[in-house]
Every structure is written in structure tokens, then in C-alpha cells.
Amino acid sequence: MPLATYQTSVPVVVDDAKCIADKGCTVCVDVCPLDVLRISDMTGKAFMAYDECWYCMPCEADCPTGAVTVNIPYLLR
Amino acid sequence: MSSPFESYDDLDDADERLGAADPAERRVAIIALGHSGDPAAVAHLAKMVADPDAGVRQQVAMALGEFDGPSAAGALVQLLVDPERIVASAAADSLAEFKDPESADAILPLVKHAHAFVRMGALRALKELRRKDTLKPALEALQDPDAAVRVQAIGVIGFLKLEESIPALTALIGDPDAHVRRAAVSALAFSHMKIAAETITRALKDTDWMVREMAAETLGLNVNGAVAADPLIACLADEFWQVRLKAIRSLGRMKVAHAVRPIGHCITHEQANLRKEAAAALGEIAAPDGEPFLVLVADDLDPDVRKNARWALHQIAASTARAGS
Fold first, then answer.
1. B150: Cβ–Cβ under 8 A, 6 or more apart, which residues?
2. Where does the 4Fe-4S ferredoxin-type domain start and stop, copy by copy (chain A) (predicted)?
3. Which residues of chain B from 54 to 73 reach within 8 Å of chain A, CB to CB?
4. Cβ separation of B28 and A65 shorter than 8 Å?
5. Which terminus of chain A has a smaller tally of CB atoms within 10 A, N or C?
6. pLDDT for B226-235, tens place per residue?
7. Considering the domain boundaries, does residue A3 fall inside one?
8. Closest residue in B to A65 (Cα–Cα)
9. Mind giving me the DSSP string for B242-272?
């Protein structure tokens, strides 16, 4: 899978201000069927490590703080 | 994959985190307790229903949804009356997942709560518990001034499937709210009483198309629905194709032989869903006079229509062969 180089251009965007991964939450990482989300060693927040997404949405739906947004491409909506 | 949740050795470990000053840490501990699946976690979660942070209380409501039974229901009813809507909504969603009839004892008092949202949430939760003593409060709730509460009360009655509730349900056909009328029509599906089928048939002429659509569908499921064959055929001229579609489905399910021609005339409609349903219904009826209509869509642009048409033609051929042998 291609590495996600620029976080702003990937489908799954995490709002660092809302993310509580640094407190021990791993919900989005656990529910992702493609295992593309990671917790950053530097910020302690979740991010999309690999630019691959099925747009299945549990990461957004299950995030306890509403920090995850999945940007679905227009043609898939 | 390693998970920080796995670092919780036991419930006491998570319980310790529930006292953290940071609300985010408390939330994570609550998620861990919910994921544990251990019924002993309910007592720990119940202690958090009065947390000062609304997000934490919302998380407690969601975590309690992983469990079932009177203890979890007791904690959730406290959250259902929470002044914060996000908390109350999460509690209502979690309670709706409960299946243990014992949970009803904690929920029943809220059916008479001052706030409509709470009454609605309580009735929604009682629906799948299917306890006979919930019938009386549900019947009383049919007089509720809030239409959404009346809809949930119909749900409770519909799930109980008791013939004694039929008079109350048939009376709702005159309710001013279309959602209530639609729910009442749907709840009458199970009844063996003739008055139920007659009431559903009357609903085919409702002013709201969604009520008519539900009536057309429900008649196909009701044991006495066949008495409404002609009113259903009349529905094939309804201004809404959605109503026609359900009428066609019901006529096919009932195998109404004299409906072949009216159904056949719908088979060239611009809506592919309607063509598909018409082809399927003609196959269900399997009368030879349906064949000329099916030939019209044998090469339809929609593959589902073609598939149903071929299946229907096969059904007619098989039926004709059986009759000849």
C-alpha cells in the first residue's frame, strides 16, 4: 500500500484537538479493516499511515470524540 | 496488533482510571470496560452516570449498550433523563438493543415521564422485550399528544402480537398524523381478525401516499389480505409508483389470477423497479395469459428485469406442463 505522505490529502482526517489517542484510545485503529491507521509516536494522535481506504466508515462512526472524518470522493457518494 | 486497552489487567485497573481528572482518560477507561464484555463492568460503569462531563456520560451510555439485563437498564434509564440530548440519545439507542425482558422493570416508569423524548425512548426500549405487562401502558400511550410517542407505542403493541390490541390499532386509522397511521397499518399485519384486513384495505385510500404504500404491502402479508384483491388492483392506478409497486408485490404473493392483465399493463413503466416487480408477480401467479407481457421485457435494458422475466416465463411453462400432465 502507498504511504500517506501528506496527511491533508488522505481520505481519513483526524482532528488532533479532539483525538484522545494520547490517553490510550485506539478505537479507530482497531476497527479499520485495512489496518491503515496508526498512532503517531510524535504527537500521540491517530493518523492515516497508508493511503488506502474502503470508505467503510466505522473509524468515523465509532470515534468516541468525533475526531475522525472520512472524506468520500464525490463519485462514490 | 497491540492495543492500549490490553494493558488493563483487570476491571479494578480500569476502575482506577475512571477516577482520573482528565475526562479523556475516563472515556478511554469506559471504552475498555465496555469492550471487556464482563458483566461485572456494569457496576463500575453505573458509578459514572453522574460524571460532570457530558461526553463521559455519553460514553457510559454507549458502553452500557454492550450489556443487557436489569442492572445495565437501571443505569441507562438515569442517562435517558439526562438534560444533555447527546447523552439521552445514546442511552435511548443502547436501551433499544436490550433483549432481556427483566430490563422492563427499570424502563416502565419512564413511559409516563414529563418529556416526550424520554417517553419515546422508553417505549422504543420496551418494544423488543415483548413483555405482556407492557401492553396496558402502551395502549395508554396511544393517546399521547406527541405523535412520535404514539408511533413507538404502536411498535410495542405490534411486537406483542396480541389480538386484544386490534380495536385500539384499527381506531388509529383516523389519527391526524400520517406516521401514526402508517405504523398502525404495519402493526395490523399479524392479525387474523377480519376487521384488521378491512382496516388495512380502507388505508389504501389514505390521503398520504406512504400510508397507502404500507397498506398495499401489509395486505400481502395478512392472512385475510386476499379479500382486498380488487382494491389492490385499483391501486395499480395510484398516482405514486411506489404504491403500485407494493400492490403488484402483494397481488403476486396472493396469486390473484384476474390481476394478470392489470399487472401486465405496468410492465412497460419507465421505472425499472416497477417492471421488475411486475415480472416477478406474473411469475408468482404463473398464468399463461401473463406470457405476452413478459415477452415485452425479455430484452429489457435492466438485467434484473430480464432475469425476473425469464424466471417468470419458466414458472408459466412449468405450471402449464403440470396442468397438462
1. B141, B142, B144, B172, B175, B177, B180, B183
2. 10-42, 44-73
3. 55, 59, 62
4. no
5. C
6. 889 999 999 9
7. no
8. B55
9. HHHHHHHHHHHHHT-GGGHHHHHTTTT-S-H
Residue of A nearest to B3 (CA): A26
The candidate with the shortest Cα–Cα distance to B110, out of B89, B81, B83, is: B81
Task: State the CATH number of the domain containing residue A64.
Answer: 3.30.70.20
Angle between the B116-127 and B70-80 helix axes, to the nearest 10 degrees? 160
d(CA A54, CA A70): 10
Q: From B61, which residue of chain A is nearest by alpha-carbon distance?
A: A64
| Number of compact structural domains in chain A | 1
Residue A7 lies in a domain: no
Contacts of B28 in chain A (CB under 8 A): 20, 23-25
Considering only CB atoms, which chain A residues are within 8 Å of B27?
20, 23, 25, 64-65
**pLDDT category of residue B9 using cuts at 50, 70 and 90:** low
A6 band by pLDDT with thresholds 50, 70 and 90: low
Give the model's pLDDT for residue B2: 43
Q: Quote the distance between the C-alpha of residue B234 and its chain's center.
A: 27
Residue A43 included in any domain: yes
- Band of the pLDDT at B325, cuts 50, 70, 90? confident
Query: How many Å lie between the alpha carbon of B2 and the closest alpha carbon of chain A?
Result: 9
Gap between the Cα atoms of B171 and B162, Å rounded? 16
Contacts of A29 (CB under 8 A, 6+ apart): A21, A35, A37, A38, A39, A46, B1, B3
> Could you tell me which chain A residue has the CA closest to the CA of B20?
A23
Flag whether A75 is in a domain. Answer: no
Q: In this predicted structure, what is the pLDDT of residue A10?
A: 80
Q: How many Å is the Cα radius of gyration of chain B?
A: 26
- Residue B5, chain A, CB below 8 Å: the answer is yes
Q: Which residues of B touch A65 (CB under 8 A)?
A: 24, 27, 55
Percent of chain A with pLDDT over 90: 69
CB contacts < 8 A, A to B, total 37
Give the Cβ contact number of residue A50 at 10 Å: 16
Mean pLDDT of B191-200: 94
